[in-house]
Amino acid sequence: MIALVAKLTVREGKEQDFIDAMKDVVPAVREEPGNSAYIMNRSKENPSMFVFYEEYTDQAAFDAHRKHLGELGVDLRAILAGAPTLEFYEKIY
């Protein structure tokens, strides 16, 4: 099992655009084979910071997820304030 925390900072004033862009993406990712969790969170202290908690059965499932994101056609480059920070974990329990 691969667990991932992805932190994304959105440009100020683009927060609702990001939420709107993700409203169809989140349920689509949850349907991917090998996806166990895809949870979108927003910081209470910084409304421009979003954190995703993700779980995949293995590396192949995660690789398929990355490909699927591209197929969904969501281009966040104009919305994000920089590159996402990705932290990978090994799920223990």
Q: How would you describe this structure to a colleague?
A:
32% of the residues lie in helices and 32% in strands. The protein contains two helices and four strands, in the order βαββαβ. It has a four-stranded antiparallel β-sheet, with helices on one face. It is α+β, with helices and mostly antiparallel strands.
Please describe the topology of this protein.
Layout: E1 2-9, H1 15-30, E2 35-42, E3 49-56, H2 59-72, E4 85-90
Antiparallel strand pairs: 1-3, 1-4, 2-3
Percent helix range? 25-40%
Uncertain segments? none
Structural classification: alpha+beta
**Total of DSSP H or I helical runs spanning 4+ residues:** 2
Radius of gyration, taken over Cα atoms and rounded to an integer in Å:
13 Å
Taking the sheet with the most strands, its summary is: 4 strands, antiparallel
CATH architecture: 2-Layer Sandwich
What is the strand tally?
A: 4
CATH topology: Alpha-Beta Plaits
The strand order across the widest sheet is 2-3-1-4
Shape: globular
